[in-house]
Amino acid sequence: MSSYGMTRARTVGAIAQAVTEAGGSLGRLFGRAGMPLTLLDTPDRLILLRDQLALVAAALREIGDPALPARLSMQTGIVGLGPIGAQVRSAETLGAALHRVEVVTPLLLQTATWTGQRRQGDDAFYGYGITERIERGRQANEVLALGYLLGTVRHFLGPAWRPERAVVTGATLAGRAEIEACLGCTVSFGPRAGLAFPARHLDAANPSRLDPTELSPAETKPIGEDLPACVCHLIELGLDEARPLIDAVARRLGLSRRTLQRRLEQAGTGFADLRRDVTRRRAEALLSTSTQSIGRIAIDLGYSDPAHFTRAFLEWTGATPSQWRRSVHAEADARSRR
C-alpha cells in the first residue's frame, strides 16, 4: 500500500468560487498551492491529499477567512462528495450510513484518511482523521471535514440539528469564534477531529432514501493508491501545464529522483513507461473528442513539434494521429447508422 494519500478534486471548484467572490486571485491561489487551474474542469480527477490541504491553506491566506472551510463544506453538502454522498443517501439509518462511510471513503473518495463513528455508552463520536504525516493545512482540512460530517448527520436529523460539540486536533484554532458560529456548537481539542452527539441519533431513519441500484459505476469505482497509480495521476496533472518530468513528480512526492526510480522498479515499472501510457491515453482522448489540430494536440502534450508526436503515436498504436482519428470517427459513424 502506498503512504501517499489521494483525493478527488471535488472541493476545488467551491474553493475557487469562494476566493473569486471575496475578490481574491485564482492565479495566485493555484500558484501558491502549485496546482493547475484545469482542475476546475475535472472534479473527479485524483490529486494528492497533501495538495488539497495546501490549496485550502492557500485559500485561507488569500482571503483571510478562518471559517471558510466550514462554510464551503456546509454549502456544498454531502451531494458535493459524489460517491460518498450517494452512499450516505442510500443507507437506511444514520448508523448504517456512518458505517458505510467508514468502509468506502478510503476506497472511493480519499485515501490516507479515516472517517467513521465510535460509540461509548450513550454518546457517539463521528470522526475524521488524516493518517498520512502531513502538517501544512491539516487543521483547516479538519474544519472542512467537519462541515461535511455535519451535512451527513443533518440529512437524517434535519437542517436545524446541532452537535453537542465539535473537535479538532492541536492546541489552538485561529478564528475559533467564527468557526463555532458557523458550525453552531463549541469547538474543543482532542486527538481526532469530529462531532459528538447522543448515540440514540444513530437509529434515525433516512427521510429521503436513494435507491442503491441507481448508483452509477463512477460512484463505486475504487481509487488506485499504489505508487505507480499515484505517479500516473501526477503525470496527468503535469500534462495540463507541460511535459511532466520525473524530477518534478519526485519533488511533489517528497522523494529523490533515485528513490522514486527504485520504488517504481520494485513495482515492476518505470517512469518512462508510465508517462508513455498516460500520454497515449490523453492523446487518444483528444483525438477522439476534440477538433483540435494535430499540431495543437502535440503542443498540449508537451512535444516540440507535430513530427515528434506523430512518430511517438505511430510507435504506440501502429497508426499516425490522423489515421487513428479517421478510424475512430468512421467507427462512430458506423455505430450511429446501425
From TrEMBL:
UniProt-listed Pfam families: Arabinose_bd, HTH_18
Keyword Lyase listed: no
Keyword set, alphabetical order: DNA-binding, Transcription, Transcription regulation
InterPro entries with a match to the protein in the record: AraC-type_N (IPR032687), Homeodomain-like_sf (IPR009057), HTH_AraC (IPR018060), Tscrpt_reg_AraC-type_HTH (IPR020449)
Domain of life: Bacteria
PROSITE patterns listed in its UniProt record: HTH_ARAC_FAMILY_2
Alphabetical list of SUPFAM superfamilies matching this protein: Homeodomain-like (SSF46689)
Xref: SMART domains: HTH_ARAC
HTH araC/xylS-type domain: residues covered: 229-327
UniProt KW DNA-binding keyword: yes
Protein name per its UniProtKB record: AraC family transcriptional regulator
Organism: Methylobacterium indicum
